[in-house]
Amino acid sequence: MASTEMEIDTPQDDPTNGPTTTETRTSTGAVAVRSIEGWIILVTNVHEEASEEDLQELFGDYGEIKNLHMNLDRRTGYVKGYVLVEYPTQREAKAAIEGANQTKLLDQTISVDFAFVRPQPKKGEGQGGRGAGKGGGGGRGGARVRSRSPDEDVVKDE
């Protein structure tokens, strides 16, 4: 039976720079986010004839692989071009990204990065959702302009 305990990554202290306060970021600057069960990395540009053994061999060097998911094309049975690899700790996932990104797998250069991210807020946007700060009443509480029927504005004299 599988364990129901969730592993929690503790922040690492760097003796040279003091405690670490920065979040792990992707190559595009977004903040990496942990999935419910672990740290998932996305491997793209995977050769269509790559096997699970090829990927286990490459990514097993960076830590214990908790799960490896290869989407296959239903018609051909080949890999669709991307793979999801799950590691139990952030340290292992980050090592795999740094070690395997832009390396060759079956004569194709693969790209590796975190699968789940929280993007940076855009300039001018603060906290809050549903168009907060944009003036639009996006949601149930927002006022909606409705057209009026022509008879409502006319006062009838009787």
Characterise the protein shown here.
The protein is an alpha+beta fold and 158 residues long. 12% of the residues lie in helices and 23% in strands. It contains 2 helices and 10 strands. A 4-stranded antiparallel sheet has the order 5-6-4-9, with helices on one face. A two-stranded antiparallel ribbon has the order 1-2. A hairpin with a 2-residue loop joins strand 7 and strand 8. The longest helix has 11 residues. The chain starts with 12 loop residues before the first strand and ends in a 40-residue tail after the last strand. The relative contact order is 0.18.
Count the DSSP helices.
2
Low-confidence spans: 13-21
Please state roughly what percent of the residues sit in beta strands, choosing from under 5%, 5-15%, 15-25%, 25-35%, 35-45% or over 45%. Answer: 15-25%
Instruction: Tell me the number of strands.
Output: 10
The helicity comes to 10-25%
Instruction: Please state how the strands of the largest beta sheet are arranged side by side.
Output: 5-6-4-9
Q: Indicate the radius of gyration in whole angstroms.
A: 25 Å
Order of helices and strands: EEEEHEEHEEEE
Specify the biggest β-sheet: 4 strands, antiparallel
Which class do the helix and strand fractions yield? Answer: alpha+beta
Categorize the overall geometry: extended
Q: pLDDT average, as an integer? A: 78
